[in-house]
Amino acid sequence: MCLGIPMQIQSIDGFNAHCEAKGVSREVSLFMMQEENLQPGDFVVVHVGYAIQKITPQEAQTAWELYDQMLAGE
Questions:
Q1: Rg (CA), the chain
Q2: pLDDT band at 1, cuts 50/70/90?
Q3: Are 9 and 55 in contact (CB under 8 A)?
Q4: CA-to-CA dists, residue 10 to 40, 43, 65, 74, angstroms
Q5: Choices 2.30.30.140, 2.160.10.10, 2.60.40.420, 3.30.70.20: CATH for 5-72
Q6: pLDDT tens, residue by residue, 42-62
Q7: Whether the Cβ atoms of residue 7 and residue 38 lie closer than 8 Å to each other
């Protein structure tokens, strides 16, 4: 099973972004989202190091709530 992880963009440098989620920071490629107008503060779904979709803060929160429930074994 593959998961897309919601992350918040902290900064952008060309086609790369510094993103954060739950205290974990990663460098993420924005190459697949060249046509999107992405800004620091936006949320994206990250899969294998690539941002693949822009999402709302509410969608990111909902995804993390579901992931937390799965990790808790509920």
A1: 12
A2: low
A3: no
A4: 5, 10, 21, 32
A5: 2.30.30.140
A6: 999 999 999 999 999 999 999
A7: no
Mean predicted lDDT score pLDDT of the chain: 94
Two tokens at 26? 């990663």
- CA angle 7/53/33 to nearest 5° reads 105
User: Coil, strand, or helix at residue 22?
Assistant: coil
> Which structure tokens are listed for 55?
């999402």
Give the three-class secondary structure for 15.
coil
User: 20: which residues sit within 8 A by CB, 6+ positions away?
Assistant: 7, 8, 10, 26
User: Position 70: which residue type?
Assistant: M
What percent of the chain lies above the pLDDT cut of 70? 97
Average pLDDT of the segment spanning 30-53: 96
